[in-house]
Design a protein that fits this description.
263 residues, mainly alpha, 39% helix
């Protein structure tokens, strides 16, 4: 819940950017189809897609990666179909809803090619060319390797059941709903290129760093942000406060201190 709360708050930070660019005043969100009205999922599809308790190991590399990224947390609602979207994320300028990322061809990503999927995942650009709000943590996913992107694509296209559920339209005031400022934000804060191992550390350390910095997108919630909603690299993983929600530091010293306080 703490991760979701702060991803929601991060949306608000990115929304502040849009406000600055448009009226001199958003950073994990949804990508709805325009003007679609929400509708309940079909019962059969919902039953098929509701995720079981994850007691069995992942069947494929793509499933393992999707679990590591916790995609289901934001792209599902309690009691709903897995990955069918609909989670409300509040921001200072209105509500944003996560989208359907099942392989449904009308409402989901069933028509996405691998290149389309990659463009959305690592660059924050949907198939139709519009930019995603950075509550969808593509700034972190930008560090994913090509092979991991393909494994994730194969998982969503071949293992996830398609759910014919429309996306909910965002509830943002029209004057603040323009997405062109995100192109400027992306230029400033999104660094292209896969994770590069640190030769000063062993393979185990680098594997952990890769998961933390890319797929796990830990910094999206546990790193303070500047006034434009960008992560403050010099304070990576030191925690912070977003919309009155406190996020713990995940630095080693703070984790050790917290553990001692609990004893």
């Amino acid at each position: 819940m703490k991760i979701i709360a702060n991803r929601i708050a991060a949306v608000g930070m990115a929304a502040v950017l849009g406000t600055i660019m448009l009226t001199a005043s958003i950073a994990y969100a949804a990508d709805p189809q325009p003007a679609q009205q929400p509708a309940p999922p079909q019962p059969a599809a919902q039953a098929a897609a509701t995720p079981p308790k994850e007691t069995a190991p992942p069947a494929t590399k793509g499933e393992y990666l999707a679990r590591a990224g916790d995609c289901v947390a934001c792209h599902s609602v309690p009691g709903g179909a897995a990955f069918a979207g609909g989670l409300k994320m509040g921001s200072p300028v209105g509500n944003i809803y996560s989208t359907n990322i099942t392989p449904d061809k009308e409402f989901g990503i069933g028509n996405y090619t691998l290149a389309d999927f990659d463009n959305a995942l690592r660059h924050g650009i949907a198939k139709d060319g519009h930019r995603l709000y950075p509550a969808m943590p593509y700034p972190s996913y930008a560090k994913l390797t090509d092979d991991d992107v393909k494994s994730l694509y194969d998982f969503f296209m071949h293992q996830v059941p398609a759910v014919h559920q429309p996306n909910k339209p965002n509830e943002i005031r029209p004057i603040l709903s323009f997405r062109w400022p995100l192109a400027i934000w992306d230029t400033i804060f999104v660094k292209d290129g896969a994770f590069k191992p640190d030769p000063g550390h062993d393979a185990k350390w680098n594997r952990g760093a890769y998961l933390v910095e890319s797929l796990g997108h830990c910094g999206a919630c546990h790193t303070p942000r500047n006034q434009l909603g960008g992560e403050r690299a010099s304070l990576a993983l030191t925690g912070g406060t977003y919309n009155d929600a406190i996020v713990d530091s995940v630095h080693e010293q703070e984790i050790v201190k917290q553990d001692k306080d609990m004893i």
